[in-house]
Amino acid sequence: MNENLVQKLKSRYKNFDATDVDAWLERRDELGTMQAISEDEGVPLRTITRHFSLVKEYALMQNEDAVIKGISLTKSLQRARDENNVMRKYLREGNREINVIEALNEQLIDALKEVPKVVAGETFSTDFDPDVCVGVIQLSDLHLGEQVEFDFNKYNWNIASKRIKLHVNKALADFKSKGVKQVMLALTGDLINSDRRFDEMLLNANNRIHTMIQAVHLLRQVCSHVASEGFSLAVASVVGNESRVGQDVHFSKVLASDNYDTSIFELLKYTTDGIKFLESDNPLESIVEIGKEKILLYHGHTGKGKDLEKKLAQFITKYANLGIVITYAMSGHIHCAHVSERFARSGSTVGANEYSSNALNLASAISQNYYLVNPKGGVCGVVNVLKDHELSDGYDIDEEFAVHNKLKSSTNTVKTVLEIKI
């Protein structure tokens, strides 16, 4: 505020020092309002208000350090408020998600109570007869929900159900001829298809929640099929990489279990009775002991390199340090079958698809494995080629979930909701 204005203010007001902001505040408190000051001093209200603003500005200029400190404190306060708002927003959204998930889980549990349980006959026994082999049916890389439309290979829910049933039929026929009484179903990951790549989203028949429900429906029929043939049944499972819920591949036990393969296994367990479920504390690896055989189940995306012999050596060393001797290993992952005396890798029910043919440039056959395990020692693996799936009638498929890209195709047609004819 310049000196001329200071003198002008001092000369204009008769009852107080108009250059002192405290004097303004005291005068306002004394008379009550700026209007009262205007009337008492005989100065227009508009002038009083403008002068008061000038005086406050002058006072701030006279206390520059205090102003800077005040601004700094105000900024800190605002930052704290902003951080608090962000945290509250995050907590609100997190609580909403938790509430939705809890509500969905409650509805899912209520719905599952209405689902009739698949009941098996005799319970799977770990007291193995040394003279009777145990059958193992491996289901790996089913990629349920995927759609393939090549001239030389097609894949959808109906074809998947036929190939799986053909695999089970061939395995059970061999088991019966060998006198097998007990069967283990080994689920080694990637039971449903990924939806992270754009072409996968386009080629999937439905979203992955619906696919998971359909997969449980199909695998319940597999369990019922095995049990109806007079075999006692056990189920073991590990997770794959394509069935993970999130974007990233995780290797910690907690995060790796965030996987649709885990959910399918748990839902199978909930909706069946009389079947032994072999649970592991590690979703990535499971060890099944059949007599003298300690069989390692894993999907195939863990461990270094693609050489099965080297991978097995790594696993053997790791478990040997824990006092566990691995005698055989079963895996999947790269859709190419291989069977040897010490390890085996399953193929896929899909066969060649857009990704394997065009991106990876791989030739992929259609196959699954099954095994005869001698409790006295020894595993005999068989690669089951499934090209002749038309010979199988397939398992029941809910067409509501199996229609490929139902939502996308429905948007391309116009449906008349109401038609009035005159």
Please, could you describe this protein's structure?
The chain is an alpha/beta fold and 422 residues long. It folds into two domains: 60 residues, no CATH class; 291 residues, Metallo-dependent phosphatases (Purple Acid Phosphatase, chain A, domain 2, 4-Layer Sandwich), CATH 3.60.21.10. The chain has 14 helices and 15 strands. The strands form four sheets. Strands 8-6-5-2-14-15 form a six-stranded mixed sheet, covered by helices on one side. Strands 9-10-11-13-12 form a five-stranded mixed sheet, covered by helices on one side. It has a two-stranded parallel ribbon with strand order 1-7. 35% of the residues are buried.
Topology (SSEs and partners):
Blueprint: H1 3-12, H2 21-31, H3 34-41, H4 45-62, H5 64-113, E1 118-119, E2 134-139, E3 148-149, E4 154-155, H6 157-177, E5 182-187, H7 198-203, H8 208-228, E6 232-237, H9 253-256, H10 260-270, E7 272-273, E8 276-278, E9 285-290, E10 293-298, H11 308-320, E11 328-331, E12 338-339, E13 343-345, H12 354-359, E14 367-373, E15 379-385, H13 399-402, H14 406-410
Parallel strand pairs: 1-7, 2-5, 5-6, 6-8, 10-11, 11-13
Antiparallel strand pairs: 2-14, 3-4, 9-10, 12-13, 14-15
